[in-house]
Amino acid sequence: MRQTDRHFKFDWATIILYFLLVGFGLINIISASQSGGSIELFSFNNPYSKQLLFIGLSVILIMLILAIDSKFYERFSSIIYFASLLSLVGLFIFGKNVNGATSWYGIGGMTFQPSEFAKAATALAVAKYVSDLNTDIKNLKDQLRIALIIIAPAFLILLQNDAGSTLVYGSFFFVLYREGLPKLYLSIAVFIVLISVATLKIGPIITVIIATILLFTFYFFRRKKMRLFQPIALTVICLGLAYGVQFFYKHILQPHQQDRISLWLRLEKDPNKLERMKKTFAYNLNESEKAITSGGFTGKGFLEGTRTTGKFVPEQHTDYIFSTVGEEWGFLGTMFTIILFILLLIRVLHLAELQKSQFSRVYGYSVASILFFHFMINIGMVMGLIPTIGIPLPFFSYGGSGLWGFTILLFIFIKLDSNRINEW
Amino acid sequence: MRQFLLFFCIILVGLVFTARLFYLQLYSSQSNNLYEDNAIRKVYDYPKRGFVYDRKGKLLVANQPSYDVMVIPREVEPLDTLEFCNLLKINKEEFIKKYNKAKHYSPRLPSVFISHMSKEDYAILQEKMRKYVGFYIQKRSLRQYETTIGANVLGDIGEVNNSNIKKDPYYKMGDLIGKNGVEISYEKILRGRKGIKFIQKDRFNRNLGPYKEGKFDTIPEQGKDVTITIDAELQAYGELLMRNKRGGIIALEPSTGEILAMISAPTYNPNDLVGRKRSKNFTKLHRDTIAKPLFNRSLSGVYEPGSPFKLMNALIALQEGVLSPEERITCNRGLKYGNSFMKCHCSNHIVRNDMITGIQKSCNAYFATAYRRILDKYENASIGIDKWSTHAKSFGLGNFLNNDLDVGQKGRIPNRAYYKNLYPKTFRTTYTISNAIGQGEVATTPIQLANMTAAIANRGYYFTPHIIKSIEGEKLPRKYTTPKYTTINKQHFETVIEGMLRVYENGTAKYVKVKDIEICGKTGTVENFVKIDSVRTQLTDHSIFVAFAPKNNPKIALAVFVENGYFGSRFAAKIASLMIEKHIKGAITRTDLEHWIRTHSLENEYAKPQSGEPFNINEKTQLQVIPLD
Question: Is residue A180, in this structure, part of any structural domain at all?
Fold first, then answer.
């Protein structure tokens, strides 16, 4: 009796959202990777039919994950984490270089990307450490240890020249903040981001002037007691930061990195240089924006996208898959995708808050944060809202490692969630 | 509050994405137009432009292939400029200039980079074209003239300009369009409809194959051949006769309104305006503001008609019943009216002319009287002149003919409203007495005058003069096949025609008679003035002649205008006689006339106003004799 009940405790809403995303993703991979002629779903020698195979294998993987006892994940989290680290280290010896990044193992004709699985492993390790009764997140020593857990895989991935995947580890900030990380860290983060962007956009002098005015206004209208020393010190820090950012941008960054930032913040005013940018490093972005724009409200229809068919957007079936949605399904399709993602994120977040064990909650929060980071960076990049950072769109982009990595990440949480009644 | 940070971030990112998608897909998205889509290559297939034949089926205009190098600036990729320039036979500066011009027009639409390459250059270039991304070769067809005559009739084709493209989106940069003559009048029929192929491209500009298996492709519709009413032989003969003269000849077939010949002198060889040499030669012709070879004098030249207009006044007088054919009018070397006097050269002594002799001798006094009577028949001259004007306009004068020729002028037949500013209050017949003899405010174009003659030849109706004889598989518009009746009754024409016959038998044109052909004509000599250094200066009179033949069942009606040719029978009547003989007999018996016309030039006359020296006119001039070419 109890056995059968347990099946129905899985959160079907999340599972349905998962399959909707994977299914719609496959449809778009077909468009982006077909090469005219008939669609051969079962030939397994083209991306879309391989993706279909990966989805099929995912179903087996899901059943496996859900079949394992939920206690297993908490108990073996450290082992999983270290195994994952080991697989990343192994890349330095056995790794295969694809597009400048040494992130793959080649096994026969297949490639395998351990960094896609490291996210789930790290999430388990963080959940385990934070939920430990001896851990106090307000304690600097513990903060440093947690930081080490997160930074270790991130650093290994960065060494393999995969900056995009490294950035995703920043998403753990949301998890730690939720679990009680002091507000000061959030303030510092927001402060640094605001000052940096403002410096690049409007120049250091105006930034510092505005910041100073705001700080002193805040000082004079303060409610709590505050010393004059504080706003003055902050102004000095502002000044240092602003000029530091400018120096970093002008003298430390390579010209091609400068170009990316200047394109992102629309700093470049010379139309000739802009035109050149569009033909070189901004080519993908430019083509992807054009493809999305050309879709209009209803899109051109399945397999009807002229820019998709003409393969105008490089890497369209992987990182730029969202531009296919834009061209062929239009505003309706892109909004549909975004709403699916938001529903999934909010659902996972909601379930995480319902968890009774801290381990499950932290893990659930990690899942939502990681997925959110991927969603924000990938779609933001494809639409030209943030600089080009190559990471896949979860469940959508072509790739076995990616799909399985996200599937494992999500379904471990579904398994943990199904067990929350038994947790005390 | 801590648990809401991520939630807010998710919602915020969702809203930002929605706004961005709204901007991209709803706000900046243009209509999904295949023509605007640069992922689709548009390949045009130009149809054969219709041929032009003359009325006897002689081929006048055919086609020849030509190759243009086209460029789409935004698709151009870095290339070996030096090699490309060598292939195109241009230098680097020209390359940059042409490229910038194309880019300025539109970075995403094709522009012509090099036009009209020879077959040989094309053959070499074609091999290497793949290397130059953003450039391609467009095959077009240029005109091939099978003749050297009729430039003003046939017209020419040239590249479309921006206003053509704006007016009709069918045309794309580099397309060819009729610029004048038959080419512009029958542009849509001659050009056909170009076909288009949509080809899916990839980002390397390679063809992936037809877009949607060619669902939207169209096949070109061939241009239709047209036959024009011109008789190439007569046209050529007219052009020969008009060499070294300025003016125009219009010859019509009265029974149909078909234009047999339309000569405007000076003219040019239509082959000069084909292909690469077109722009150079066109500029040269265009800049010649003295001889104005591009100005179609037979259609757009507005002249005072002079004496031929007396025929009009005779007809109106008969219709209004103010004169009978038999009534004699006294001419005392002219006519006194009020305090003025109108001179007449019809005789050295007092004569009394009836209508026939009035026309025969072109008596000014007779027609001044006729004109006065017409206007004075009514309560006042204001009503009279409006009546008179209505009659004259029923012959197609004073307004556009509304036919298939691309240029034309209204000419002028004044009515009371026209004189409103000049004579606001009192208006007397005598104010406008010059109209009686075709001077003063009356003005016509040669084609209008020819048409008037055709209406007289038909005894009261005309067909709108037109250039089209037949279009492959189409019927002619009804306006060319329905007669237009004048306001003059049929019976009044015989007297006038008899007078015109006498002009040849006994009158001003008796020396240019042609054996066995009854020609009816009327000479004209028209004073004219120009401003030289802002001084109004009289030049030698224009020589004018209108005629039709034969008297019964007329085959040809024509008007001949020779600028500064002096009296009517000196040049115009001779040319008219030769044209008539050529058309009716097919060969010339009056070789003496032909020889005279061909060996006498008026170029010395035309040089006078530009010479800056004082000069003589009319009877004091010396004709320039040239050798027969």
Answer: no
CA distance A84 to chain B (A): 27
CB–CB of B10 and A353 under 8 A? no
B105-156, pLDDT tens digit by residue? 888 778 888 888 877 888 888 888 888 888 888 888 888 899 999 899 999 8
Q: Has residue A226 been placed in a domain?
A: no
Per CATH, the number for B232-286+299-625 is 3.40.710.10
Residue A1's pLDDT band (cuts 50, 70, 90): very low
The answer to whether A130 and A369 are in contact (CB under 8 A) is no
Name the amino acid, one letter, at B242: M
- A contacts of B203 (beta carbons < 8 Å): 287, 310-314
A310 to chain B: which residues are within 8 Å by CB? 39, 200-203, 208
pLDDT in tens, A16-28: 999 999 999 999 9
Mean of per-residue pLDDT scores for chain A: 88
Contacts of B37 in chain A (CB under 8 A): 294, 306
Question: Are A88 and A79 a contacting pair, CB within 8 Å?
Answer: no
Nearest to A342 among B14, B39, B203 (CB): B14
**Boundaries of domain holding A381:** 2-129+291-422
| Tokens matching residue B229 | 């009413």
Cα–Cα distance measured from residue A69 to residue A405, given in angstroms and rounded to the nearest whole number: 19
Check CB contact of A257 with chain B, cutoff 8 Å: no
SS3 A397: coil
Each residue of A330-385: pLDDT tens digit?
Answer: 999 999 999 999 999 999 999 999 998 999 999 999 999 999 999 999 999 999 89
Q: Which residue of chain A is at minimal alpha-carbon distance from B2?
A: A178
Residues B355, A412: Cα–Cα separation, whole Å: 120
Would the pLDDT of A404 be above 90? Answer: yes
Q: Which CATH topology does B40-228 take?
A: Penicillin-binding protein 2a (Domain 2) (3.90.1310)
pTM: 0.68
> Where are the CATH 3.90.1310.10 domain residues in chain B?
40-228
- Indicate the Cα dihedral angle A252, A257, A259, A263, nearest 10°: -120
> How many domains does the structure of chain A reveal?
1
Is residue A283 domain-resident? no
CA distance, residue A67 to nearest chain B CA (Å): 30
| Under 8 Å between Cβ of B67 and B122 | yes
